[in-house]
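User: Quick sanity check before I run a bigger batch. Here is a single chain. Can you write out its predicted 3D structure?
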Amino acid sequence: VNLYQWLLERLDRGEISVRNPQSYKAVISEPCYVSELGKEFYELMRRAYRVTGAEFVELENNRDRSLSCGMASFVRDNRIRDMLKCQRMKYQQARDTGARELALNCYGCVLTMAATSRFYGLKLRFMPQEILKAFGDQVNTPLNSRVPLIMKVLLKRAPLLFKKIDPELPGIPA
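Assistant: Done. Predicted structure follows.
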């Protein structure tokens, strides 16, 4: 059971209700792994988003054709240029919808896109937090406020990304 399913089941049974409806228009930006979770998850996620009261629009590339935030490209090849190219494609599609906010479901997407979304005039919304706010929960430390600290730690350790590690494994010839 995922967070969205759990919350929606409680909503359907009348155990919880939306106490703080949200009012913004955002583009649904799916993470690259969402296609692995299946069509049911696509629709469950969208239903949970809509419950908040906010308006959501789709990217041209959505569901099983969704665009990556670029993190996978960067991790695979350590090439920031490829990551930025992926982001630019996603940002351009988002701006074409007329919305100026991105609804994100993935921590990696928030961290990867936090530094660049401003250049495209887009605000990031981390949807697990937005949904909890709509149900009346107070988010004490939003993920967006933690991004500078996380980025500082990552930059401090950045040289490790480029260091070739060749561990010796017992019984396996090099």
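The mean pLDDT is 86.

User: Great, the batch can go ahead then.
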